[in-house]
Amino acid sequence: MQLARTEFKAGLRASLPLFIAIGPFGLVTGVAMAAGGIPPLEAMAMSILVYADAAMLAATQMIAADSPALVVVAAAFIVNLRLFMYSASIRPYFAGESLWRRVLVSYALVDNPYALFIQRFGAHPEAPGKFEFFIGLAIPIWFCWQVTLGIGLLVGNQLPAAWKLDFAAPLAFIAMSIPLLRDKPMVAAAVSAGATAVLAHGLPLRSGMALAAVVGILVGLLSERIWSVKSA
Fold first, then answer.
1. Largest Cα span, the chain
2. What's the pLDDT at 12?
3. What whole-number distance in Å separates Cα of residue 91 and Cα of residue 48?
4. Which of 19, 37, 141, 147 is least buried, going by the fewest C-beta atoms within 10 A?
5. CA distance 11 to 125
6. How far is Cα 9 from Cα 137, in angstroms, rounded to an integer?
7. Nearest CA among 96, 61, 81, 67 for reference residue 169
8. Gyration radius (Cα) of the chain, Å
9. What is the per-residue DSSP string for the chain?
10. If you average pLDDT over residues 113-127, what whole number do you get?
11. pLDDT interval class at 100 (50, 70, 90)
């Protein structure tokens, strides 16, 4: 019990520095959703149920562009494919936990908690207290995201309609993507996805965004394989 409390508190402390990044991004995302015409209650419900920043921004842009619902869902699914990789990576650490604990971890498994969890337990998968540490991370990050996104929604809905806020979602995407461009495969994925989005802008059903996501993922994976072979 003492170990569980210690690990939970360690997770809480590790999450606090992330508020500096999560808070502004939540605000911008809330403003973007308001600018996209999504009512506040629906936007908050989407944030709680989906709880995936990139997918929400992609869906917001497509909803604002009057894309068909099926295309919006497909784009969000494609953008969230990275979470499948997170899940496969983290599964051995929680294989012995109860079903409800695994469900809770799967819901809260987003970029920041995953990265900090692997940083702490990646080399020590047998160490105790993994669930408590992860939950200590996930709870404050979840609350920070929901609160700041809600504030962004309130601010965005109070701004005059004459103010053009269509740039908010692309700006949030840029802010989220730039820190990830740390190696050649990521740069190749970003460039190819951006170029595809521009070239496919006129595709029917507003499907250019979904196509851009697919192209970016495939180019990133292929580039990673090519550069890993060259460096071998």
1. 59
2. 93
3. 23
4. 37
5. 16
6. 9
7. 61
8. 19
9. -HHHHHHHHHHHHHHGGGHHHHHHHHHHHHHHHHHTT--HHHHHHHHHHH--HHHHHHHHHHHHTT--HHHHHHHHHHHTHHHHHHHHHHHHHHTTS-HHHHHHHHHH--HHHHHHHHHHHTT-TT-S-HHHHHHHHHHHHHHHHHHHHHHHHHHHHHS-TTS--TTHHHHHHHHHHGGG--SHHHHHHHHHHHHHHHHTTT-GGGTHHHHHHHHHHHHHHHHHHHHHHHH-
10. 84
11. very high
What residue type is assigned to position 30 of the chain? Answer: G
Under 8 Å between Cβ of 101 and 131: yes
| Tens-digit pLDDT profile for residues 163-191 | 554 555 555 555 556 655 666 777 887 78
Q: Is the pLDDT of residue 129 over 70?
A: yes
Residue type, 11: G
